[in-house]
Amino acid sequence: MSAQPASDCLSRHASDPTALTLLQAVAARRAQPWHEAALLAALNANLAHARTHSPHYRRTLAAHPQPLPHVAALARLPLTHKDDLRAAYPWGLCAVPAAQLARYAESTGTTGGVNAGFVTQRDWLLNHYSVALAWADVLGPQDRVAVAVPYELSYVGADVDRACELLGASVLPVSTNNAACSWRQLLGLLQSHRITTLVCAPLRALRLVLLAREMGLDVARDLAVRRIVCVGEALSAAKRQRIARDWQAQVYNHYGMTEALSVALPCAAGALHLAQERFVFELLDPQHERPLSGPGTGELVLTTLDQQALPLLRYRSGDLVRLSPTPCACGRWQATIELLGRVQDLCPTAHGPQHLSALDALLLEEPGIEDLFTTRAQDGQVHISVLPRPGQPWAPTRQRLDAAVAQHWGGPVQWQVQPRQDWLQRLDSRSKPASALLVQPPSPARSSP
Ligand SMILES: [Zn+2]
Questions:
Q1: pLDDT at 4
Q2: How far is it, in rounded angstroms, from Cα 302 to Cα 280?
Q3: How far apart are CA 122 and CA 217, in angstroms?
């Protein structure tokens, strides 16, 4: 353990009075649950700001009386959809003058269209403090962190950077697909620089295991990485266990989006806590689009409480989450979720509706394929792209997979066998490995018979 606590580093970085006040405000909010009156006041202040300054909400909230009489009345307001953001691209939801903006990012969804994200300096700092206070349970000044997530037109790389700096950790900024540092070079750096923590997408962590083997390295034996923070893709329990086993590392999850920055944060117990100090969250029944009244599985809907540049009201994330009914062992008051993936990947099966992430366990158990599969629901069918292991014939592998799918999934799937080098090159050349591969339309020439 370090002699210098992470919290000391945080306070030192926030030595200017304005920043220190913000840090203390975030720390106080994270320490205990909202009182109803304080939450209602924050919510109404955000609503008033949005209706006054955001062109989109000036229009959509005009017919809705405010302030809200209680927090539950939020459910009477209209939902905000991704299409609203796309239609408003780039500035239609901006609620501050351009001169107050500190940073810009945008994202392209798997279904097309571009979402813009923008922050004031205060938005950016509030987010960093929220992230750093959460990560302080996991990281400290003794850590050397390789950040292998996108920096370009994105928040996530810089967001992780700042949190690590605030905690006194040293940062190796790698990004994803760039000419300066190939994935092979990254593995060399992980070894030579005794990197302790790797931040990357889950599929990237699995790909690096395979690439290391090709280089004669064993990631658990030859590297010092003992923590992996997975960002940018859903992380199923099965995938998490596989990454932890292969790397002999603790695996954490961190969930954010361009529109709202960091939304759910890891804790020392390995759970993923909603950032309820910065948002009000709701769950929407994915089939009937009605709010769920308690824990369960639904689409995550968020309302910002203190975002100046891009206030969001009842924003449908498009992500399916499972809300835990029990408190986390770490003692934090914020609820914990499991991020399952896209709502569109919830499928009807013989065992009832199941999310595609439920296939991860059976696919990871199959010895005939690499761990680098991708799954996608499209046009009413489930498509699974797989990469057979060298020397493993596809026919018996497929027989075993079909039997496992019939038993545990209960619906038909379309297998796609990928040409090895083409698949690996595509995986290595994209910023978001899973989504980059998923957007490839099924190719009849590559389909299995
Ligand atoms: Zn926890």
A1: 64
A2: 6
A3: 44
Please determine, for residue 235, whether its predicted confidence score (pLDDT) is greater than 80.
Answer: yes
What class does CATH assign to 1-343? alpha beta
Give the Cα separation of 58 and 75 in Å (integer).
18
- Distance between CA 67 and CA 64 in Å, rounded? 9
Q: Ligand 1 mean position to 76 CA, how many Å?
A: 31
In this prediction, residue 439 carries a pLDDT of: 41
- Is CATH 3.30.300 correct for 348-446? yes
Question: Where, residue-wise, is CATH 3.40.50.12780 in the chain?
Answer: 1-343
Residues 406 and 393: their CA atoms lie apart, in Å, by: 21
List, by residue range, all CATH 3.30.300 domains of the chain: 348-446
Residue 327 Cα to ligand 1 midpoint, Å, equals 8
Protein residues with C-beta less than 5 angstroms from the ion ligand 1: 267, 269, 271, 328, 330, 332
User: Which helix (DSSP H) or strand (DSSP E) does residue 283 occupy?
Assistant: strand 279-284
- Tokens 């609820």 locate to 335
What is the pTM (predicted TM-score) of this model?
0.94
CA of 100 to the centre of ligand 1 (A): 35
Per-residue pLDDT tens for 2-22?
A: 446 777 777 777 778 888 899
Given a cut of 70, is residue 447 above it in pLDDT? Answer: no
Average per-residue pLDDT for the chain:
92
CA separation for the pair 211, 200 (Å, rounded): 15
* Rounded distance from Cα 266 to ligand 1 centre (Å): 7
